[in-house]
Amino acid sequence: MVEQGNAKLSAIRAEMASRDLECFVCFHMDAHNSEYIAPCDERIAYISGFDGSNGIVVVTKDDARMWTDGRYYLSAEKQLEEGWKMMKWEATEQTWFAFVDAQVEKGQKVGIDFTQYPAKSMKTRTEFFKKKDIEVVSVPNLVDLVWGAERPVRSEGKVQLLAKEYTGQDTLDKYETVAKKLDGSVDALLVTTLDDIAWLLNLRGNDIEYNPVFFSYLIFYPGKEDKKHSVTLYISAGKVSDLKDYLESVNVTVVPYEQIAEDLVNFAESDLKIGADVDQLNAELHRHIKDVIVEKSSIVETIKAAKNTTEQAGMRACNVRDCAAIMKYFAFLEEELKKPDHGLDEYSGAMKMNHLRSLDPLNRGPSFESISSIGANAAIIHYAPPKEGAEKLNNDEIYLLDSGGQYLDGTTDITRTAHFSGSKAPTAFQKEAYTRVLLGVLDLERIVWPSTSAISGADMDILARRHLWAVGLDFKHGTGHGVGSYLNVHEGPQNISRYNKVKLVEGHCVSDEPGYYKDGEFGIRIENVIMV
Amino acid sequence: MVEQGNAKLSAIRAEMASRDLECFVCFHMDAHNSEYIAPCDERIAYISGFDGSNGIVVVTKDDARMWTDGRYYLSAEKQLEEGWKMMKWEATEQTWFAFVDAQVEKGQKVGIDFTQYPAKSMKTRTEFFKKKDIEVVSVPNLVDLVWGAERPVRSEGKVQLLAKEYTGQDTLDKYETVAKKLDGSVDALLVTTLDDIAWLLNLRGNDIEYNPVFFSYLIFYPGKEDKKHSVTLYISAGKVSDLKDYLESVNVTVVPYEQIAEDLVNFAESDLKIGADVDQLNAELHRHIKDVIVEKSSIVETIKAAKNTTEQAGMRACNVRDCAAIMKYFAFLEEELKKPDHGLDEYSGAMKMNHLRSLDPLNRGPSFESISSIGANAAIIHYAPPKEGAEKLNNDEIYLLDSGGQYLDGTTDITRTAHFSGSKAPTAFQKEAYTRVLLGVLDLERIVWPSTSAISGADMDILARRHLWAVGLDFKHGTGHGVGSYLNVHEGPQNISRYNKVKLVEGHCVSDEPGYYKDGEFGIRIENVIMV
């Protein structure tokens, strides 16, 4: 591994030299601003050895650094190959851009694969470097060039049609809703976020683990006087070869995934106006249309977030079935942990849970990597048990399971915390903390408000926290995130936190997940998905 | 009255003509952006006959309009003299500036007394007219010119020193706190809000009913290397003639009230920087220093709002005594209303309450005009009982009393709602509404939060409303306002509403006053002042 690590860095540096780059920066990101990424986009894992979900790498002529956060310090130190140094992503530490600024002299160039950065953030970053007289240039991803034939191919998995009994709304109707919202303000709307595309076309895929999405871009044309809405879908043709009739029926023209850039160049040369969300659109595509773009934030995302009545019923139904599976698992644990030789650990427990879920005929796998943690590990908010070396489960400590499933009729995300009172019972403090967390869950899930008031997550965050605050406790994470309908377990635009001012409307689903964490001792979290 | 009304308007129009004005606009406002104004500033009452607390008048060559809000429609219609037309200040009605725009042609002039409008708001307004090619010019208040010798003189009442047992902090210490906050950013700070001046100098006055303030402007000089802080106080000399030694001891130079404008002109011609709050500073004074001003928002207001430990103790003590007086009043009512010939009405009840309060040796009068209302009148949120024609009190309907006192050790504002169950008992709905209002009061007053979090009124407004929301009820006013310490009953910058993001800190006092109002039937409000 050591020579290979060096060889890879040398190859990157050769690519940098041929482009006159002083520095190359690469992110843990795909071209669609996805939270989870596919194997072909795991460039940081390939080039540095570090396989965590948060990383930024900077390679200079004689240095290579990788930034990540506190969850990954230990594993990054172990995994990083020779020639790499880990950097802490913390308020008091040097940022990657400050590092670049310190390494690069005026007039020199920094290369970035612009598809890895949303346009709006790139603007901020580019302006920072411009002030320093450092030029940021868009380059192909140099990691891909080094990776070469070894790079996993982009999934050719088939896209599936999701039946109306689950979506509740025909695609042509969804076009109408989007067109109404655009209200003639643009000639076309570019959609680049994978879950928005999947929702609009009533299609699902398998290209990213946990997220039933498929790689594609989409341009929606609201039509002129004829009001006939149509779509151009940029996707590998083989993925939708079984869906020709359906796609034709919903006015979709299929063109190759890679053609998006060329088409946007043509768009920019026309007199037409194109809408796009610059918080999501990658900076590379943005370059082509920056003169003709009309900023349209969260158009599809906002419509998608308010679940229709079919989706609402589906969310309820899948949550009931999911809870039944969880109860089976906890009942199983209760019996199993009494056996001295049970052999269950955090990882195998999570696998057992996924198995119980998979018995449901509508289940399509887990919706995220389970957090299955015992004792002090439960205090680590984003803990994921390793396959090798997970802690053995026991009935003397608090056990926390945060897991969820993808079902044809919805997406779940549930956390339960239990203590099986073996030789030890939970302490009075643990019981009090649990009770106060539960009071927060209940207060938040029972809130009712006037539909005439624009009430947001910011207005109600206090309900989940006040019972903890009353005795000087709190939790250092958001109270709740939006949840998709057989889509991503995290979606916007609404959430429950002091900072989210998006008006909550009927059909919005959010998680309700206060907690309490005592470092080095135990962790408590209780989570339900609740619906407006 | 009719001829006089006409004569007054004719006189105003003559003044307009001599200044080539197409239109003159006058506000219910003084030069200090005060909520309550003195008799000499009641220009709208003089010129139009309407004596409500919210009014804007526009006089053109052949028209005269007066805008007010829903509280005053009935009384305004009665009071307005000949030649005047009442306009409704509502979202769907024509605004005064839209009216002016419709009346005045391009290139013509609109006259406004700039002392009646805060600088920041005037900027917005002037820009509106500029777009329409209408010139807004600063003129002396034309009403004053017509009013002439009949205009009440500005109060010459003596200013009093407030003892340290009530203020808790010497003026020289307060200077130090202000200077620290300015941190060398300006050479001087202009303070124009009357309660801020009173607080800083530990002085109180009697120039405005209910508010123990005195007309003045103040410039604070933080000093240079010598760190000797000093103040120039612009005030009528006779008002502070008894305080010469004190003022000298706190480095105050007294100069005439009117000299402020001239001094600011001189300031503008120097190289010095002066700080001021453009939300408060009137537009006339702002004109003189607009090139040298540094915007400093709420410097004194913010320090003043966090009561020191002496003020905190005073607020607690005066609230206890005030509550005792209120309990005496309600006990008195309970007995009195049983008598068929009791003769008590809403107005005489309020007077009785003020009398009971005045028996406290530290009482210095009411802190605002009492809202004393029975039955359907209690549903009118800002109802003030008229001296003549107030409703007779009874023990068959809900009675609401919202009143407060000024005390040397603090300011109170308390609302109690009672039903004395004479021949009728309160209905089940009234009892439920009362209970839900009370639950909101209690939830809000008991909230505890981590001092490390920047928690504001916006975060907790929901606590006062959620028990009402749960059954489809709500109230259409803010939940709580800041309260002064033997100062104005309304003060900032903090309050309890969904829109106030000012961080709540120790010593902040706010009212906690949810309510429920059933139009035409009854009103409920329960109010305590609570302290962080």
> How would you sum up the global shape of chain A?
globular
What is the makeup of the main sheet of chain A?
6 strands, mixed
> What's the number of helices of chain A?
17
Mean pLDDT of chain A: 95
Which helices and strands occur, and which strands form pairs?
The structure is a homodimer of 532-residue chains.
Chain A: H1 2-18, E1 23-27, H2 43-48, E2 56-60, E3 64-68, H3 73-79, E4 85-88, H4 96-103, E5 109-112, H5 119-131, E6 135-138, H6 142-147, E7 160-161, H7 164-167, H8 171-182, E8 188-191, H9 194-201, E9 203-204, E10 217-221, E11 230-234, H10 244-249, E12 252-255, H11 260-269, E13 274-276, H12 283-289, E14 293-295, H13 299-305, H14 309-336, H15 346-358, E15 363-366, E16 371-374, E17 399-403, E18 405-407, E19 410-411, E20 414-418, H16 428-445, H17 457-469, E21 480-482, E22 491-496, E23 509-512, E24 515-518, E25 522-525, E26 528-531
Parallel strand pairs in A: 1-5, 3-4, 5-6, 8-13, 11-12, 13-14
Antiparallel strand pairs in A: 1-2, 2-3, 7-9, 8-10, 10-11, 15-18, 16-17, 17-20, 18-19, 21-22, 23-26, 24-25
